[in-house]
């Protein structure tokens, strides 16, 4: 026998306007349906190397396509239904509102499945998430981009940005290192970057083959070839964790202020929204406070690099 | 907030009406443990008689009503060569009776994390909105240290909070729902004596704490002691089982996993509670583990609870209930670890004392 006077009414969140939805007590928050992904069609897949592919995606819904805007350095969560979602940095131009490009290495469960997809299939994306490179702040200065291996992927968005606003920057150096010549990504764009965008590109590999004509060794050796005006230079460093330590301490010795060096960190992520805590570094979330940090913040984060 | 007093007999009738007409959970005696102590848990209750109002503590916390161990975030339906995603936030009304002040504080901390941040969690909100929380004050147990973290009292985050002032309960009414239900029962405006009794009760609770943990300037101490051998020492004991995070009322770290339905016509995306002490917590694709050692992970747990969150949200995550200390099979408890870090004599590196008996 139920006494309806004492039955607590059910509040159905599916039917409520999200922004005005708050618990009876406690504070206001703006709710978004972040669990819903944007559906994307895979429009093209480029084999870059054995291990890396470039996926070109197009958001299916025109309205969602209009909403999705990102800044260089941000990432998105790419979801393959049934397999899971992975954080992937966006490597296309932020001005390209039609297509997204993601450079992906086959490394785990989801990416292996992703490598079996073909153009025409649908995946979902959530985002964009995270912090970005301060491109406006960098304007009027020299820019030094240092990439190691797959680290070129997150650097491609700021590179596109620089290309589009080339007159705002003085010297732009791109130092790019890989294990072998065959592992250099986007080599088909090297000439374009060099001649059209006037970017001084220096490449280096650890293990050269017979045809390799550029330098051989670790990426720090490239610093001998270039002269940097430390007072007017911003640096962006991206690569495997061990590279940060060497490159950043070298740049620090050159006299580039710590707050003008930017790194893009990678960690395990499950939500991208600062909730699951898997990507936490000390006190900071890589997903909402990062992935782009200035070197000063990174130095102050224990266990960051 | 509106304040009323209610006689204990009338209060039982009120709780009975709520419990009988809703899906309700309250503390119940489930068994005794190996040390002969009573084990209480939040369990379904259908009448007021089943609720152990004088319970000591529940082994698990109330967070599982809001963050269940496994929860579906969304569903995918496959058809032809395409799929559709469905997201729904289902929650049914629940009455929770008898939460302690620290349990409610923990819910407020979860609110801060999951609702008042960049991307509020709708799953959590649906449950939080549909839960009617009745808090009860209690005299602290020997190992409670919530006073050290200022969580022995609570001023928000509940629908109704009851303080035991002898013959009556002093009610703090924090929602219109609670006020409406109470209209059907005989309550009185608090008299001057009632107010005095409440103050006495609060003083008594505050005086009764036996365990104190000094957490002042802990964020900076944690920073300075980052490479302290203390972490090695406690890490060597840690079993990586993750129990501490499971019983913690405010731990919320999770993992998201997706799996195909058995008929292969769909897939579901689930959130699973996780623990930062589990070995693969920070393993990235390719196999690199950012926290390979026991000590690293244990340290991270303390960092998150006492430093990181303090920096981000201006409070520490820990509410001082010592559930983790009691549940830990290796006898690791926050009091000893923090005292070790502060180089307190009673349990510092050179004169390691046994962890206090889990009373």
Biggest sheet of chain B: strands, sense, closure? 7 strands, mixed
The counted number of beta strands of chain B is: 11
Mean of residue pLDDT of chain B? 86
C-alpha geometry of chain A: globular
Query: Any idea what the CATH superfamily of the largest domain in chain A is called?
Result: Nucleotide-binding domain of ferredoxin-NADP reductase (FNR) module
What is the name of the CATH topology of the largest domain in chain A? Rossmann fold
Task: Give the strand line-up of the largest sheet of chain B.
Answer: 1-9-8-7-6-2-3
Number of strands of chain A: 15
Gap from first CA to last CA of chain B: 36 Å
The CATH architecture of the largest domain in chain A:
3-Layer(aba) Sandwich
- The strands making up the biggest β-sheet of chain A line up spatially as 10-9-8-7-11-12-15
Index terms:
heterodimer; A: 305 residues; alpha/beta; Elongation Factor Tu (Ef-tu), domain 3; Rossmann fold; 7-stranded mixed sheet; 6-stranded antiparallel sheet; 15 strands; 18% helix; 27% strand; B: 359 residues; 2 domains; 4-stranded antiparallel sheet; 21% strand; globular; disordered C terminus
């Amino acid at each position: 026998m139920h006494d309806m006077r004492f039955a607590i009414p059910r509040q159905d969140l599916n039917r409520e306007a999200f922004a005005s939805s708050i618990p009876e007590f406690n504070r206001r928050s703006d709710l978004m349906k972040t669990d819903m992904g944007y559906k994307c069609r895979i429009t093209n897949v480029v084999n870059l190397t054995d291990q890396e592919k470039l996926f070109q995606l197009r958001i299916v819904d025109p309205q969602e396509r209009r909403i999705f805007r990102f800044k260089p350095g941000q990432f998105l969560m790419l979801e393959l239904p049934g397999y899971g979602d992975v954080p992937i940095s966006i490597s296309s131009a932020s001005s390209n509102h039609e297509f997204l490009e993601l450079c992906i290495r086959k490394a785990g469960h989801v990416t292996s499945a992703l490598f079996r997809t073909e153009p025409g299939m649908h995946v979902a994306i959530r985002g964009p998430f995270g912090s970005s490179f301060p491109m406006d702040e960098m304007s009027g200065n020299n820019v030094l981009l240092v990439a190691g291996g797959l680290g070129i992927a997150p650097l491609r968005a700021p590179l596109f940005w620089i290309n589009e606003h080339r007159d705002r920057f003085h010297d732009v150096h791109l130092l790019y290192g890989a294990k072998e010549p065959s592992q250099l990504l986007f080599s088909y764009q090297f000439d374009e970057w060099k001649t059209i965008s006037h970017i001084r590109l220096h490449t280096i590999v650890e293990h050269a083959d017979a045809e390799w004509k550029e330098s051989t060794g670790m990426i720090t050796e490239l610093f001998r070839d270039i002269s940097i005006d430390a007072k007017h230079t911003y640096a962006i460093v991206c690569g495997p964790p061990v590279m940060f330590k060497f490159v950043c301490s070298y740049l620090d010795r050159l006299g580039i202020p710590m707050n003008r060096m930017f790194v893009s960190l990678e960690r395990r992520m499950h939500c991208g929204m600062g909730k699951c805590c898997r990507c936490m570094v000390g006190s900071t979330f890589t997903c909402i406070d990062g992935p782009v940090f200035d070197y000063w913040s990174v130095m102050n984060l224990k266990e960051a690099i | 907030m509106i304040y009323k007093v209610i006689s204990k007999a009338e209060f039982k009738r009120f709780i009975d009406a709520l419990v009988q007409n809703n899906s309700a959970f309250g503390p119940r005696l489930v068994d005794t443990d190996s040390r002969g102590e009573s084990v209480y848990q939040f369990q379904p209750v259908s009448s007021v008689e089943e609720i152990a109002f004088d319970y000591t503590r529940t082994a698990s916390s109330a967070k599982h009503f809001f963050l269940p161990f496994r929860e579906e975030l969304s569903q995918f339906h496959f058809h032809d060569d395409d799929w559709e995603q469905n997201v729904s936030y289902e929650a049914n009304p629940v009455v929770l009776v008898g939460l302690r002040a620290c349990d409610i504080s923990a819910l407020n901390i979860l609110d801060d994390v999951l609702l008042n941040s960049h991307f509020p969690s709708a799953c959590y909100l649906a449950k939080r909105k549909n839960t009617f929380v009745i808090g009860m004050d209690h005299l602290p147990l020997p190992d409670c240290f919530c006073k050290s973290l200022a969580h022995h009292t609570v001023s928000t985050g509940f629908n109704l909070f009851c303080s035991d002032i002898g013959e009556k309960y002093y009610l703090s009414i924090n929602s219109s729902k609670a006020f409406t239900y109470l209209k059907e029962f005989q309550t009185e405006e608090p008299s001057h004596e009632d107010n005095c009794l409440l103050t006495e009760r609060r003083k008594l609770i505050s005086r009764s704490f036996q365990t104190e943990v000094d957490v002042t300037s802990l964020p900076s101490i944690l920073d300075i002691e980052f490479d302290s051998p203390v972490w090695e020492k406690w890490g060597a004991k840690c079993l990586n089982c993750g129990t501490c995070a499971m019983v913690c009322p405010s731990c919320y770290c999770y993992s998201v996993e997706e799996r195909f339905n058995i008929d292969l016509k769909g897939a579901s995306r689930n959130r699973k509670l996780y623990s930062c002490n589990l070995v693969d917590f920070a393993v990235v694709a390719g196999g690199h583990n950012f926290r390979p050692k026991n000590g690293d992970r244990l340290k991270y747990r303390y960092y998150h609870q006492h430093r990181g969150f303090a920096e981000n949200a201006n409070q520490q995550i820990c509410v001082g209930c010592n559930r983790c200390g009691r549940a830990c099979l290796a006898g690791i408890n926050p009091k000893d670890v923090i005292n070790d870090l502060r180089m307190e004599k009673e349990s510092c590196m050179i004169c390691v004392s046994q962890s206090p008996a889990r009373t």
